[in-house]
């Protein structure tokens, strides 16, 4: 039987860099909210022992695909813990809708959906906390997608405090450039000394993204997009880019601006979600 599972995107409503650890990773305070928009995945489990991907993602070899890596990592752990046999297998399909390298967390979300779906379909019985731990080795954003609730993330993104930001409507725009995360994190001019603040302080201060100045300086298209959107609504970079988002109180207001976007902008309208689509399906 083929099972369908959602793999939603996220926004970083704010992102402050508060330091850099000895291993080079940056400590952050960032607010994650999900989008009611994302990729769609299919899972067909079998007993043929192989993990197969139905379709390739452009420029991502199978062994590097976070979907394959998540499935392989879960299977290896489950065999070591004697929770499944070597014979478990699966064929996984993906309908890629989220732009890649866009700061919408597509790869991390795919990895989280894979961990959660296979945990259920292979009857492994791991807790969400155990899956989040496994996922952290695949990417800093995997735990938030595994936990599935909007949260303030601290540390390198793994220490989560649930919060309930207003579920606004967003016009999300992609500048048709991809920004690899290290390009931003390795920039010597990146702000790395934002003050550490409490949840209350953060929720009541103006929201911004410390990566935005570097993304605007190094990628002209990001700068152009933001200049255009800021004429209509408060707008910011998500994650390390390249996508930017403008926020609105209603769908109608977001769609009105969508009709005005010039042809060079790739955009979509989506609503913020406190609980991810994946977890809404889990609780049905
Ligand atoms: C900053 C965020 O976009 C916030 O959503 C994400 O945490 C980045 O997540 P990602 O793109 O999945 O990044 P990862 O694959 O975990 O890390 C890519 C690279 O970014 C740098 N990196 C990442 C996360 C972090 N807190 N500090 C870092 O310095 C590291 O050099 C790392 O090798
Ligand atoms: N299943 C996958 N989907 C998307 N990208 C993948 C996948 N597997 C591996 N990758 C690699 O990960 C890179 C980052 O993709 P992703 O879409 O997660 O970036 P992102 O949205 O910038 O993430 P973040 O917000 O976590 O920084 C891609 O350029 C690609 O090389």
UniProtKB/TrEMBL annotation:
Annotated pathway: Isoprenoid biosynthesis; isopentenyl diphosphate biosynthesis via DXP pathway; isopentenyl diphosphate from 1-deoxy-D-xylulose 5-phosphate: step 3/6
Keyword line: ATP-binding, Isoprene biosynthesis, Kinase, Nucleotide-binding, Transferase
Domain of life: Bacteria
Residues noted as binding ATP in the record, renumbered to the chain: 99-109
Top-tier EC class: transferase
InterPro entries assigned to the protein according to its UniProt record, in alphabetical order: GHMP_kinase_C_dom (IPR013750), GHMP_kinase_C_sf (IPR036554), GHMP_kinase_N_dom (IPR006204), IspE (IPR004424), Ribosomal_Su5_D2-typ_SF (IPR020568), Ribsml_uS5_D2-typ_fold_subgr (IPR014721)
Substrates-to-products reaction catalysed: 4-CDP-2-C-methyl-D-erythritol + ATP = 4-CDP-2-C-methyl-D-erythritol 2-phosphate + ADP + H(+)
GO biological process, one term: terpenoid biosynthetic process
EC number per UniProt: 2.7.1.148
Catalytic residue positions: 10, 141
Residue ranges constituting the GHMP kinase C-terminal domain according to the UniProt record: 196-258
GO molecular function, one term: 4-(cytidine 5'-diphospho)-2-C-methyl-D-erythritol kinase activity
Pfam families: GHMP_kinases_C, GHMP_kinases_N
Every GHMP kinase N-terminal domain range: 65-148
Function: Catalyzes the phosphorylation of the position 2 hydroxy group of 4-diphosphocytidyl-2C-methyl-D-erythritol.
Family assignment from sequence similarity: Belongs to the GHMP kinase family. IspE subfamily.
NCBIfam families: ispE
PANTHER family: 4-DIPHOSPHOCYTIDYL-2-C-METHYL-D-ERYTHRITOL KINASE, CHLOROPLASTIC (PTHR43527:SF2)
Self-association state and partner proteins as the record states: Homodimer.
Listed name of the protein: 4-diphosphocytidyl-2-C-methyl-D-erythritol kinase
Species, as recorded: Rosenbergiella nectarea
